[in-house]
């Protein structure tokens, strides 16, 4: 058993070990006695939570009498849409589903660790790397979709004779984006949660509250930065100037 196994992870390992090993088998990882890790289970819980929230929201949508629940998410939508238009332009609406999903997933993952008996899945580098790779493949796919084969011109530089030099540089630059997105999110959330846990163990009220508030602030900022960088990358990929 894992030393830091959460109660919900223990439940998964006790009841769904076969399913966990089947999923691990898809990526050729040998079967284990307790295949579920905390970050895996917490990702599933975050996804389920978001699905439930939006299922409830859908039943309460009203154009004439919007409730506070609907108004809250309308504010989130307007915020994401405004940021996307600033970075991409009027075509930003095509990509809002990805931006909104990545923002809400990371925000919820960052903050769920503040609930007792849970932990933030973004404290694990595998989760942040997965988000970074999803962004990486998404903006390249959108670039190809918007520009066709001409998208490869982004990697060749401004002059054709510079292409042999610029192409490997651009490839390294784009791969560095994955590393940057991964490490930035992971390091900030891991450090923030560890600091909060330390002060929860050392001090009494109001000390922990201050650091929990700081952790909320960092979690929101990191979700915003990740989304904003994704918008910048998509904007540069779908641009037609090149």
Characteristic terms for this protein:
single chain, 242 residues, mainly alpha, 8 helices, 71% helix
Tally of distinct domains: 2
Per DSSP, the total helix count is: 8
- Unreliable sequence segments: none
Summarize the amount of helix as a percent range: over 70%
Broad shape: globular
The tally of beta strands, per DSSP, is: 0
Query: What Rg, in angstroms, do the CA atoms define?
Result: 21 Å
Give the distance, in angstroms, between the N- and C-terminal Cα atoms: 54 Å
Order of helices and strands: HHHHHHHH
Structural class: mainly alpha
Mean pLDDT: 89
Strand content: under 5%
The main pleated sheet reads as: none
Task: Describe the protein's architecture and organization.
The structure is a single chain. With 242 residues, this protein is an all-alpha fold. The protein has two domains: 1-36, no CATH class; 39-238, no CATH class. It is built from eight helices and no strands. It is globular, with a radius of gyration of 21 Å.
Which SSEs are present, and which pair or pack?
Elements: H1 7-15, H2 17-26, H3 38-59, H4 68-88, H5 96-111, H6 125-147, H7 163-202, H8 207-238
Helix pairs in contact: 3-5, 4-8, 5-8, 6-7, 6-8, 7-8
Would you summarize the structure shown here?
This protein is an all-alpha fold and 242 residues long. It has helices spanning 7-15, 17-26, 38-59, 68-88, 96-111, 125-147, 163-202, 207-238.
């Amino acid at each position: 058993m894992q030393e830091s196994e959460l109660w919900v992870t223990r439940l998964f390992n006790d009841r769904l070990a076969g399913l966990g090993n089947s999923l691990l088998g898809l990526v050729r990882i040998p079967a284990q006695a307790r295949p579920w890790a905390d970050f895996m289970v917490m990702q599933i819980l975050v996804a389920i939570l978001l699905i439930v929230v939006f299922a409830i929201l859908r039943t309460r949508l009203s154009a004439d009498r919007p409730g506070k629940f609907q108004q809250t998410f309308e504010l989130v939508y307007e915020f994401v849409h405004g940021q996307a238009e600033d970075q991409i332009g009027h075509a930003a609406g095509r990509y809002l589903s990805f931006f909104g999903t990545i923002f809400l997933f990371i925000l919820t993952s960052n903050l769920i660790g503040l609930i007792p008996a849970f932990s933030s899945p973004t404290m694990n580098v595998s989760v942040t790397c997965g988000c970074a790779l999803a962004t990486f493949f998404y903006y390249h796919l959108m670039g190809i979709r918007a520009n066709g084969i001409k998208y490869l011109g982004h990697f060749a530089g401004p002059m054709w004779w510079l292409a042999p030099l610029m192409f490997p540089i651009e490839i390294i630059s784009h791969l560095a984006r994955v590393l940057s997105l991964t490490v930035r999110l992971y390091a900030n959330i891991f450090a923030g949660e560890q600091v909060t846990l330390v002060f929860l163990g050392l001090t009494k009220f109001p000390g922990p509250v201050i650091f929990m508030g700081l952790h909320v602030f960092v979690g929101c900022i990191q979700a915003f930065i990740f989304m904003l960088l994704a918008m910048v990358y998509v904007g540069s990929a779908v641009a037609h100037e090149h």
